[in-house]
């Protein structure tokens, strides 16, 4: 079965970016000149997932507005002959079939994913978190989709992090997996256990779970029976740990793809600023001039200022 549905949880309050997110969803914060959420939807569509469900919450209406047509603006741009900006405005509208459902109460990532049950049905599906932007030049989601189709289980994206940082992430215990095809088998593993944000001295590895998942629909029944875990929330990591222990006949089996490409974290203020700079310097329209200015700015920072 070809996977064609993507779920993007976007109901978080964005408290780390207050007061900017008091009335603006964090997913709509610009990364250069596009909101972060558009990069994620574009990634899903590029991988063949043309049916996208955003899980939203209160005060998130602008997310739906962004992916809707704006006839007045489009007419004004067309009348001015500003066809470049008109094309950019229409990009988000023409991406694919984008749907929305409200989470109601923020009870954790697992609870957010559970809201997609009726839309997804009995098909495997992808989950993309809006805080993690994957560089469009690096393959990840397509590799995960192919692995899920071969194994029939669930697949998560993993990233090697310094051991001291593993307590900030969900962490995977793994073993080698030789079922990979068409890629580097060393970057594909079988998951034997998962734990959410373990202390560094208790972590089974330095492989952190990052925000890309391809899930078997059996995860929904497990989430319905998963008690609140760390932080009093229903954790997707806990449900995946249960899936890893189930036989394949029941939708079990969890695999991991270790990602070694470019990832931009927009969920933290400092990392958000780094992401904007990293993406801007690679833009053909902005990069050359921005790099020149950035080099001069950095040089001035390292030069002692005279009184």
From TrEMBL:
Residues 5-278 form the Nucleotidyl transferase domain. Signal peptide: none annotated. It holds the Pfam family NTP_transferase. The keyword Transferase applies. Keywords: Nucleotidyltransferase, Transferase. It catalyses: alpha-D-glucose 1-phosphate + UTP + H(+) = UDP-alpha-D-glucose + diphosphate. One of its GO terms (molecular function) is UTP:glucose-1-phosphate uridylyltransferase activity. It comes from the Bacteria. Its EC number is 2.7.7.9. Belongs to the UDPGP type 2 family. PANTHER family: UTP--GLUCOSE-1-PHOSPHATE URIDYLYLTRANSFERASE. This is UTP--glucose-1-phosphate uridylyltransferase. It comes from Cellulomonas fengjieae. The lineage of its organism: Bacteria, Bacillati, Actinomycetota, Actinomycetes, Micrococcales.
């Amino acid at each position: 079965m070809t996977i064609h549905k993507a779920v993007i949880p976007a109901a978080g309050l964005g408290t780390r970016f207050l007061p900017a997110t008091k009335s603006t969803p964090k997913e709509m914060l610009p990364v250069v000149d596009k909101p972060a959420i558009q990069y994620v939807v574009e990634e899903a569509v590029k991988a063949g997932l043309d049916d996208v469900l955003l899980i939203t919450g209160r005060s998130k209406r602008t997310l739906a507005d962004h992916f809707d047509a704006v006839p007045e603006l489009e007419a004004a741009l067309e009348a001015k002959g500003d066809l470049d900006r008109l094309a950019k405005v229409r990009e988000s509208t023409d991406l694919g079939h984008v749907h929305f459902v409200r989470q109601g109460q923020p009870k954790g990532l697992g609870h957010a994913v559970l809201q997609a049950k009726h839309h997804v049905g009995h098909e495997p599906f992808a989950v993309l978190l809006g805080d993690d932007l994957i560089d469009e030049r690096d393959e990840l989601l397509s590799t995960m989709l192919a692995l899920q189709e071969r194994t029939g289980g669930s697949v998560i994206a993993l990233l090697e992090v310094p051991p001291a940082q593993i307590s900030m992430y969900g962490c995977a215990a793994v073993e080698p997996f030789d079922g990979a095809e068409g890629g580097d088998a060393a970057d594909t593993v079988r998951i034997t256990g998962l734990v959410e944000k373990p202390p560094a001295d208790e972590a089974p590895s330095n492989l952190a779970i990052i925000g890309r998942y391809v899930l078997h629909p059996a995860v929904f029944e497990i989430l319905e029976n998963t008690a609140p875990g760390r932080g009093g929330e229903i954790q997707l990591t806990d449900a995946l740990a249960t899936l890893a222990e189930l036989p394949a006949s029941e939708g079990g089996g969890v695999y991991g793809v270790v990602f070694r490409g470019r990832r931009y974290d927009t969920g933290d203020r400092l990392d958000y600023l780094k992401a904007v700079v990293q993406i801007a310097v690679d833009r053909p329209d902005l990069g050359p001039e921005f790099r020149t200015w950035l080099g001069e700015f950095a040089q001035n920072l390292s030069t002692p200022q005279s009184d």
